[in-house]
Records
---
Amino acid sequence: MKKHKISLSEREGLLSILLLSLMMMLPAWLSAQTVKSPDGNLSVTFSLNDKGTPVYQVDYKGKTVINPSTLGIELAEENSLMDKFRINKTTTSTFDEKWQPVWGEEKEIRNHYNELFVEMEKPSNGRYMNLRFRVYNDGVGFRYEFPQQKYLPYFVVKAEHTQFAMTGDHKAWWIPGDYDTQEYDYTESKLSEIRGLFKDAVCSNASQTIFSPTGVQTSLQMKTKDGIYLNIHEAALVDYSCMHLNLDDKSLIFESQLTPDAQGNMAHMQTPCHTPWRTIMVVDDARKILASRLILNLNEPCKYTDTSWIKPVKYIGVWWEMIGGGKQWSYTNDLPSVRLGVTDYSKCKPHGQHPANTQNVKKYIDFAAKNGFSQVLVEGWNIGWEDWFGHSKDYVFDFQTPYPDFDLKGLNDYAHSKGVRLMMHHETSASIRNYERHLEAAYNLMNKYGYNSVKSGYVGNIIPRGEHHYGQWLNNHYLYCVTEAAKHHIMVNAHEATRPTGLCRTYPNLIGNESARGTEYESFAGNKAFHTTVLPFTRLQGGPMDYTPGILEGDMNKIDPNKHHHINSTLARQLALYVTMYSPLQMAADIPENYEKYADAFQFIKDVAIDWDESRYLEAEPGQYITVARKAKGTGNWFVGCTVGETAHLSNLKLDFLTPGKKYVATIYADGKDASYKANQQSYVITKRVVTNKSVLKLKAGAGGGYAISIFEK
């Protein structure tokens, strides 16, 4: 073949083309920045694509775990912050500190990350949007930041277009995306199967708004085929709407879906401001998800100078009689409707099914004092429960006036004489304006009678009508209640509120939330057997849950003759949940009579701590099993808990976390030989043995079962 000789002019032409191509590539190449985790295993690469759109990618140990994903904010006007950006400046930094939480799973937490900060401008309109990435050894956090600026003093977010592009059809543990409730059972499936399983995953709720047949909620736990665990959530949700995830099941790309307000907008912003952190945990060991403090670390330090009044709480309550036993929060059947300040309850005939009465509450106070519980929750103490639900009623409760059979002062005096406090209950019926109009007076009442904690609730559709439980306006309300409560030295446990995002670091009087399907559902249709093996990977990533465990009598017929089912848990697992479901707020949810019936098992609930110096995650696989060991605050005592899903599990439990050279007495509360959530639920065996740090315990947990161990220094 005859070779063609390239002329000088041809060479010059080719060189010009090459230089032009390089020049076209240069802006994107120059914009690419990579920041790695302190251990070098995890990295985030950021760049602008050829449209000037921000793009990030996440790699772990040389493998891409988040494919190139775009970022942007769509505004309710034409000049959206989506593309045509240029990078003005990038800076990197390293941060490393240790801090001590007021309460928690350990007494000290390390906050260690490398940061990339990107300052961007949209030259066409002189608007600025910055991005901040923090890369930890176990995950990534990033957020949008908006400096104060002339051409963007205020803006309305129409949509946030944050992508999370998956690298494969991962296994996921998910619940349906919903603007108003998280009270769903989890489904385990591939991402591609979400659409087909979605309809059956939705159950009815007092308030719910589904937005997509492939929408799911955070925290979303996933596992890749090669054994990488991914978890997507958010941190520090303040003055913004809650984020869900909407899946394009063809491309396997998740995109953020914010909760709209009554007008359909997602957030109203004033610069300077920023969004919450978007978080991605990436590890190759499931135990590291449970051990991660990424969410807490991305929140600001504690805002309070004095935290001495914030104390973990182990409590009982006048609750299961209503939830499980079918008794009433209301006082009378005489009133089809109630007008506060007008209705005269003294003229009404009590229906006789009101457990929040003076005599019954005294029984609970006596039981609490005898068994070392610090507080007693009483639900249904205040007037207004006759027509509280389903009427979109504005002026529904005043949170101050007791029913005629509830001696507010006398019961508090009686409790204090026994070394016990009552816990206030504020069900708002989702009437936000009404709660806020009464809030100061209600907190003053609590101060007057010595209450220091409140369980609030938001059942039903939100008033103002059209707002959602997880929108910006409601998120501001929840935080307002917490910060106002702090002025009164009151701790808050909010039910039906937005799922936590680590704000308990900043505001530690936010001592708990519900925000998921808890034990109360065992009295209805029951939770799936693997439910408590999933929650620590999902709901609990943002903060503790008031799960209300400890139901020792699982046959619902024995508390309510009209019910004919059994809770989906063994008795031993109910004990284990006090360890596996971390919370500084732990309820012994069963009635006193059942604790007296199973007094030997109840001993563990009495003994178990609620604040910890150290936590060890011994075994973990989402949906299958979790085994945790925790060292009680200020002591040498340890407690171990194991919860198991649909398949029985055998543990070879090494006690090498114990102090060498010391002997301990271990009391083991285990499933009986044939115990499972389907049969023999009340079968349990209690054994004692002397152990050391060299001991190995072989323990079997049945399906839907578990075991609990107290380990005391000898």
Note: Confidence is low (pLDDT under 50) at residues 8-30.
---
Amino acid sequence: MNPNEIDLHKELKKYFGFNQFKGLQEQVVKSIITGNNTFVIMPTGGGKSLCYQLPALVLDGTAIVVSPLIALMKNQVDAIRSLSSEQGIAHVLNSSLNKTEINQVKKDITSGITKLLYVAPESLTKEEYIEFLNSVKLSFVAIDEAHCISEWGHDFRPEYRNLRNIVRQLGDVPMIGLTATATPKVQEDILKNLDMPDANTFKASFNRPNLFYEVRTKTKNVESDIIRFIKQHKGKSGVIYCLSRKKVEEIAQVLQVNGISAVPYHAGLDAKTRAKHQDMFLMEDVEVVVATIAFGMGIDKPDVRYVIHHDIPKSLESYYQETGRAGRDGGEGHCLAYYSYKDIEKLEKFLSGKPVAEQEIGFALLQEVVAYAETSMSRRKFLLHYFGEEFDDVNGEGADMDDNVRNPKKKVEAQDQVVTLLKVVRDTKQLFKSKEVVFALVGKINAVIKAQRIDVLPCFGSGNAFDEKYWMALIRQVLVDGLLTKDIETYGVLKMSEKGEAFIKKPVSFMMSEDHEYNEEEDEAIVTAAKSTGTADEALMTMLRDLRKKEAKKLGVPPFVIFQDPSLEDMALKYPISIDELSNVHGVGEGKAKKYGKPFVDLINRYVEDNDIIRPDDLVVKSTGANSGLKLYIIQNVDRKLGLDDIAKAKGLDMDGLLKEMEQIVYSGTKLNIKYWIDEILDEDQQEEIHDYFMESESDKIDLALKEFDGDYDTEELRLMRIKFISEVAN
């Protein structure tokens, strides 16, 4: 068939059911059909696969598609097979096939049925396959996920490096490189490695105007924050990314316990479970998938409404790719990432065992992620700059779709400081990365500065009126503005641009916004304020205290035996209206809720109705009992009358730690019979004296008891007696 005679729109309709092409698709398809080497850079969701699928279906011969992931191939093959009555129209050739299946694939190719053959790069190194492919007509070779070729890409695969030589063995076949993420440096690298400098290059915009970007500090309460977020987006599909398999499992569990339908997905699960979880997500049987980056490659669910990064990814490419799975249908997509410098340090640790060149690249990529998280300028502008694209952050599409633009930081004039910075870069001969430049500015000495004798230059310390953080923030903004460039080949050395040279000669206004401070302590205060009395419902609190007093009188025990104050505060915050909900309140377990809970739940229920209170159901975060194993161990061994010091030792606890755990156990309503241990330390009379004290006391606070007994007993003895008392009287 003559390529010029093909009616592309008709073929598009016939195979894919679309009336028109999207974005650059048509130009790309034409370039491939006319037999040109082609390079396509198109963000995820831009319809990259169609660019080679359609030409493969209409051209004579078989197209070879090289892809790094078996799962991805399978998805694509299934999709193509659904377009045609011929099962053999698309095949996979990889290590998962047996002899019979391989022969079937060869037969279908030879008879001209197969239009697309998906292969892993490893398969192409086998002599017999090369020999076979040389004997049949090939239309072109497409290399999907082409960034795998480049060491600068975020997903480098050494087996990709040799692809050019392999393709050469197949004769003179046009080549197509496709990638969804590529910085200018990676693009250059791909073209060089595939040896196709003449390729027609098509680059779609990386801007996804419908995505909202947000970064929050990662505090201890990150899980309750995520639960709250999901409950605000009830009924919508979302993906949560974590770095480790263990974390994936943990988060999936916490979500399930809190009534959110979620499944884990990572490479440690067997193929059957993975496929099942993937299908559940696609079929909307579950709302959320918690996954490592193994997920999502090729998952085409158009209506993912949010992507949450529990851990920050290793590079901005990965981040862009993973967030790109949201809102593919053009509807809303919320991209939320949690950031703490601790996570960055963790990732740096991972790099430390790798070869030096790889480390350097890894560090350079991580620094970009840090810069993105901490910047206070438009996140969209920052991201697009990284991918070599200009963006107008006032009138551009989606300009107001990020947390920085919606809550802008105050800006300050930094014209003079920019001049100081540029001069330091110039006077130090443009040899250094950001860190050394900042050190030179503030006048700090390290080995590099010493060795290069920067500390004797007149510019050394010229910026010491400001701290390191300030200069780091300024460098980031000057880079995006294009006054400096980062040379990636040398792992991020700062170079002057022409624009920077001109700025020194003729400075103009430069408004700088201050970077975010991610300070856990500060942010902690915001989230945990909810636990203090300040925000609990005071009126309800008074009623609960009165009820507790009444119930205690009825049972002839002190009020704290029933529920402690922190538990009442938590009730006045969360308004539990069933026994089940009550058992999730701070310091109340199942046993206690059942034993004393009914009048309390009834009171709260009436109060909620009478006062039209909207209950914050999102605040009740149930734990999965991460240390429930420890609690179980304590209970079992106390039953066996094992020495407490031995129990503590076995679990690596000191006595204080063990007592804390035991207090939690008895206060949540479980009995612990430690009489055997107390009998060793205190005689009958002493025990009776302390028991009577707690029975009559208004409070169970130890410091009050210490005062009362005035040095007769120490803290440990009193705590042990309190555990025994609560266990006997309250449980």
Note: The first strand starts at residue 38 and ends at 41.
---
Amino acid sequence: MKLVREQGRWRIRLGLRGQMLGLLGLMMFLVIIIFSMLWMNEKSNHRAMVSLTEVAMGSIDQENLKRKGEALVARWAPDVASAIPSKDFASLQKKLHDLKKHKDVVYAIAFDNQGLIVADAGDENSSGKPMVDPLASAVTNAVSENKIISQWNEKLLDISAPLLVAGKRVGGLRIGMVLDTQSASNISLLQPLKNNLKQSNDRHWRWLLATTIGMFVIALGLLYLLERHVISPVRDLSLATDQMEQGRYADVNLSSNREDEIGGLTRAFARMSAGVARHDREIRRMAYTDSLTGLANRLAFREVLEARLLTLQAHSGELALLFIDLDDFKRVNDTLGHEEGDEVLNQLSLRVKNTLEKHGLPGSQVARFSGDEFILLFLKSEIRNSSSELAEDLLAEVRKPLNLNGNPLYLTASIGITLFPFDANAAGVLLKNADIAMYQAKVAGKNCYRFYSRAMDQAVERRVQLEQDLRGAFERGEMGLMYQPIYNLIDNRIVGAEALMRWQHPRLGMVPPSTFIEVAEQSGLIEMLGRHALVLACNDAAMWPSTDKTQPFVSVNVSSKQLRGGELVDVVETVLASSGLKPHQLHLELTETAILSDENLASVLLSRIRATGVKVWLDDFGTGFSGLSHLRRVPVDGVKIDRSFVTDLLRDPDDLALTTSIIAMAHSLGITVVAEGIESEGQYAVLRERGCDQGQGFWLGRPMLAQEVAKLFTA
């Protein structure tokens, strides 16, 4: 029997033994009830039989007494009557005394026709008195009718008869008789019957008692056999099940040599327990170990961190948490493939682990947190200095070239550091702080580390607030488009313009696109913003003047999420139809890295877009480490050389050579080339000389309103 708590209530749970004992108790209770009922019924039958016998014998006695009494008064009536006419009261009194001497006669009375006592064998002074007993009236009436009457009063039989002399009634004779002597004889006659019934009842009692005891002994024997051969093995199995449920596989010790089903079940359970123990060990290893690097995973690290914090809170101490994120690791997977990316993570994980061991930090732990993120902790005094030294060594180890199939690969990392107990006391808060600090290291330019500070929380809060404000910015009229002119470099003629999103925040002023675009990308708002920008740009471009020779185009930037969403083609067709803009007057710009992240999917989606007549341009070309060979596999109409190459075009021969190669390769594929960031006449001249088709930049024209762009087309 166990006391268990189920659904907030305590309940008693009976095991097999308890159930069997309960069943045995119920059976014995029922047997006792049946036995008692049988015994009581036997006693009742005994009493009923004795009572019926007594009643029957009493009836016989009464009838015999009645006949005897009637015969007695009939015999004595003439003798008594003879003494009445002579008024020989002495003789009459003697006759009555003689009559009373008969067995069972208790009184003898002679009375006249008026019911007055003439003589009473029991009371000589009653002569002349009326009979006043309850039976007197009936006696007088019966005698007056010359009848013999017999009446019962409790155990007394009263018999009266008329006294006749020469046929004339002169009174009556009344005697009383009792059954005492008869009852005594009946008792002597009934005693053997009672004795026989008692003996029979005793025999039944002993038989029932023996039967009950026998059943109880048999039940105990069966219970013992069940306990030994069934309940005990099942209880052992139940205990083993509880141990398995609690993960105490080492405590499970089952064996059996029995050849029946119970033995087979026990052996099968033992084998199952061993198998579950093996699987549990494997699952725990998999649950707490990163399958790629062999390091601890997020779950294992969280448990270690919480255990360390409990120890430190009890005994004081300091702990550092370092959050490491590789910079631009996505490029590795996109350009080299995921297998090479996994190899990079393996090599870097070993470097991180070896660096931590080299410092010999006590209580340290390193784990792969996710993707390209690693996290580690250690305990030490002067925790800030030790953290700085470790972070610098980690950054140096990451910067060392990696060997991938004989080719070097260079990477950097950003590290966020938070300290216990200075920054937080809870594991979750420390992890959040380390992530915030790592993000600040990214913002600071990457390849560096930053300690967490409360000011960073404010920066995060500002970002969250910025995300909230970004929702509905277009509807509130805070966000709009500016347009930077794009010129044909051969004749310096404007041919189109790139739509640039601008946000005039009511409190923060002009928010840089690099700030709110990143927030929009991370929050999922970029698709909504992109749709608004596309509608507004097409509506504005439709108002620009067109001629037979010049049909200006508008170039709109599209995010990778918009492209992969699958709805871009439908949105473009809808916007073109509503604005009236011709398909070839719309250019969609996508970044090189966005397209190359899934080249096959991008090729399919871009082909669908180009089938509508819309032009597709590859923006920021040259920054995605793709190589010019990708231009053969990606269906684009034009490429825009990134401003980073144009800026040093006049000073850096490598940038000039690369730019020249891009132009030549693109032209060989029939692809138009646009140069971004033209800030000087010299840059303009070199690009035109190299055959660049179009260009944009501050030297050619700064971003302006749509109305101002329209004026350029009519100038």
Note: The chain has 21 helices and 23 strands.
---
Amino acid sequence: MSVISIKKNYLNKIKLIKKYNKYYYDKSSPIISDEKYDQLKREIIDIEKKYPNLKNKESPLLNVGFKPSKNFKKIKHKVPMLSLSNAFDEEDLKNFEKKIFSFLSLKRNTEIEYSTEPKIDGISASLTYKKGIFVTGLSRGDGIEGEDITENLKTIRDIPKKINSKDFPAEIDIRGEVFISKSDFKRINEKFANPRNAASGSLRQKNPEETKKIPLRFIAYTFGNIANNNIKTQSDFLSSLKNWGFKTSQYNKTIKGTKNLEIHHKKFEKKRYNLDYDIDGLVYKVNKLDLQNRLGFVANAPRWAVAHKFSANSSTSKILNIDIQVGRTGALTPVAKIEPVNIGGVVVSNATLHNEDEIGRKDIRIGDTVKVERAGDVIPYVVSVDKTKRVTNSEKYIFPKKCPSCGSKTVKDFNELTKKYDAVRRCSNENFKCEKIAMECLKHFASKEALNIDGFGKKIVEKFWELKLIKLPQDIFSLDYKKIEQLDGWGKLSVLNLKHAIEKSKKISLDKFIYALGIRHIGQENAKLIAQHLKNIENFYKLSKSNDKENLSNIDGIGVTQVESIKTFFSNKINLNILEKLKNKMEISDAISLKKDGILKNKTFMFTGKLNEISRAEAKSLVEQNSGKIISNVNNKLNYLVVGDKPTKSKIKKAKELNVKILKQSEWIKMLNKTS
């Protein structure tokens, strides 16, 4: 086939996939099967690999999933809509409860009561009511802000437009799940791939009249922002929801202890397929709301709730090859390229092998017939090998001891806590000296969750890297736009749009800036915690030159692992140079304090000794929730030393020498209550 013919064939395929995307994403009405769509996508990618110069801006590699709709304005949630941590087995469940016991400092014979409910596979929504009137409806979005889909939500019969109950709060956010039943879906399944797509597509319609045509349902299960909350338990709130006219699950139940939760889970899993809607597990919430408040949140999930997932869907396939992917932190991740197989309605062609140890333990080889599982949104993974189907000349897979990107030696870190080597093998090259690590860092820096540079996606980063237009993050702000304008697929307008997006990205919040740096173990939520603690960018820069990094461990949610990662980051000269350059090119806003005028404002605390009926973690959390600060050493900056049972005598002695106020635990609690 001639080059002209290949190009023509390629562009025709691009045109087709663009058409299919329009029907799938914009209209939520796919016109081909998932299998045929994936096959077309693979054909396009194969052509691009052989002929990279043909790559078009409409390539599926440059357009992952679909962009958030611009048809709806974004509104910030008054209380974030966070996700839930997952439990997949009995051990996970026990660990979940163990953490609760530890945080609350509960006695072993205590039995925690949980409110349980089915985890419906739908679309989360938050409904704001003021004086009983439904005024605003938002999607989950990114958890911080959601899309305003009020008019579409108003078409759902299950959502009351006005509530006259005397006990209904003056203002409240009712949260729940929008879904479509299996029986209703059967009547309209010619338009949608599955029930969840039907719900999602309907809520994203421009015209509410189109949404109205779809028999959407709504089940309420919790609240966000609420005025004058006198409700004591989750189960009481569910009863109130029912009295107010909201639909709730008929399978809501209160259960004590993880043993009984496990029994309930096994029974419910057997009847999940008999339900008229899709569920992928059960949700457990600590029933008492005062305990929920005490437990609070860690990272992006509450400490007081967990999603207990059902068993995974699985199938068998054949490993065609094993690729090694190099991540942003240098981690080498093996990925099995498998013969495409349908698992739970999704065509899977890649499955993670996790790490070198996992390959060795399971003795996974190229050509093996394997069992592949997919649980919910979890990445498909290889469970086991059917060795009865292995060919006789099969060879063991040898994990690369050199980085496939830069050729540097690969290493395994020694964990001082476990006294074992990590399972993950990493490239030993410094950040930005390994091409793959550098590119992944740059992709992360420009990503939606970080700088959010529109039109500066992963493939653009790779292209600009190849052309030596960028090497380090600061290079993004000094691009040669004249050179870019000459590139295939670029013009004055597209270059102007890119320039505008980059200029816009220079203004960024402190937490997003910290996250954008790609520090290992510092995700979005940890970055927010650190930003809240440091307040401004100057303090972050000072941190790079000081020896006070250990103080970060006083932040509730930041542990030894995160502190060590920050130390490692600041010990790298390249990183310090990047920080210095970015300082002069960006405008980084101060962290917005969640509670500026709390009852412990401008007061510093330190705890010593064992506290009664409260853990050290919860005590620190209470101080920070009320605008106080925790410091790790007895010094002139310390206002109060709170002593429990068997305190450290040297700390008390030093506190007396510095005239630091020494409080008993009871006195500290009185301080909280007195000023509240």
Note: The chain has a mean pLDDT of 86.
